[in-house]
Amino acid sequence: MSVTEAAVRRSNRIRVSRGRKLFLAFNTAVLLLLCAAMLYPVLFVLAASFSEETAILKGEVTLLPVRVHIRAYEKVFHYPLLWKSYANTLLYTGLGTAINLVLTVFGAWSLSQKKMVGRRFLTLMCTFTMFFNGGMIPTFLVVKELKLLNTLWAILLPGAVSTYNMILMRTFFMAIPQSLVEAAELDGCNDFGVLFRIVLPLSLASLMTIGMFYAVAHWNSYFSAVLYLNRPELYPLQIILRQVVLMNEIVENASSTENVMAEGIKYATIVVAMLPMLCVYPFVQRYFVKGVMVGSVKE
Q1: pTM reported for the whole predicted model
Q2: E strand intervals along 21-114
Q3: pLDDT for 256-286, tens place per residue?
């Protein structure tokens, strides 16, 4: 490389001011602290679930297991209601997310079409529900009158659509070039054809992101089950998790040794409950940045 070329390259480098460097260093330090604050509870729970219970009670566990064993997991895995609640939660999450996405997509697509009569009024009415609603007791009475109590529909239908997610997807649909829609219509596509053949294939990032939002909400859902279900065979995983963590149900009426095991069982149950979401997230994480940002800015 000649001296001239080296000088040109040095002159073309972007010069970073000292203030900018300080800001980047401060920003990096803050983000590292936030990551540590978020990761530590997860790592502690994982370490405690494999540690001896006396070590947990004495506060000896930090980030690594102490006197490793798997007795807590054996106890959890032999608890019959855990697997039933796991199956219930998988059903609620899978079916509920499918219902959420179908209704959200159809609602967002309808509200994004300028040719739809009353579009602005319907958008205003949907937005109104984000700030005002009937409340817990009226909602419970509606579910009761519809004879949905102690059924899976009591969990799935009252929150079948998130207005925020629908408006987010509507904004994304409106950002799709109208020329694509018009070209599809000229080729003979009806509204369903345009939606399924043109719009949805272009909306994969948005669908994956909003679908993940819905799935996590269903997986962590607790209060609706408390309100609408009183049959243990219909309980989701979060109800069983509450019984284990707060009420020590697995070791209820057990010996003193098993009561000591309660601490390890709590952490093992938490790990079992959060594991599926931790396994699924890496596969959809690449869609998150694009999916959250898309539709958030209207050009």
Answers
A1: 0.77
A2: none
A3: 455 556 777 888 888 888 888 888 877 777 6
